[in-house]
Amino acid sequence: ESMPAEPDSAEGMDFAAGSVRQATVEVSTRWSPKRVVATTLFVALSAIAGREVFVARGQHGPIADVEAKQQLRLVNPGGCLCLFDVDRTLTAKQLPSLASVAKVSPQARCRNVAPQGAVVDTAFEGGLLRLSELGHNPFGTACAPCHKGVISAGQVGTPAERGIVATKLGAKELWSPASNIVSPLVFGCGDGAKYLCAKRILEWYRHVRKLDFLPTDVYFFDDLATNIKSFANTGMNAHQVSCSTRDDAWGLCGGILQEVQLHKGVSFCTR
Question: DSSP characters for 14-40?
Fold first, then answer.
């Protein structure tokens, strides 16, 4: 039985089973009932197996055509994704030097932070790196089962600091600039534009890692209110941290474990 010259209609078929969101089938109304049933069954089984299938007209029938031309794009549900700012979120205000601990004000000494020896943190005025309670133990938060990444306005300036932050997050990818996002570890994404970097991280996950995160399952944490506000009306969630210790508009001692919750919407420090 030869195929018709032109298809008459195209129907989108949605499958909830497996990880496929949609399989598109181009079907002619002049096919025999047996051919329609066979094609529908093939697409349904492919969807259950996690395949996105495109069936088009061909000289050897729909199934042979699929076997020759199908596009297999495995896209799996991503689960949840937690994205963190670095400076004053995963880190606390730096120490000027190892010998200056006693000279720092009691507030700036910060509780439960983790000094990283002689590792330099170049943010703000610079100094020695101290991880906040959150930065030291992100797996002790509600984000423990989620994928994790970074969106930093700063450069996360030294290889040593980048290595420590990535290790704490369990991330093995290379760091990438905001101008060329090829990983979930992003630096140089300006304040107020971090929601755009978050969207591009989602695109990277979808196209490279074949993980599809719903915007409602993305959670961003930052000490700066401007960045939290920019996530409003994006479908993603964002929450301000370092609320108990502030340094003007910024955090002081960085995020704490209790501030990281998978709550929907956006929220700000109230003090």
Answer: E--STT--EEEEEE-TTS-HHHHHHHH
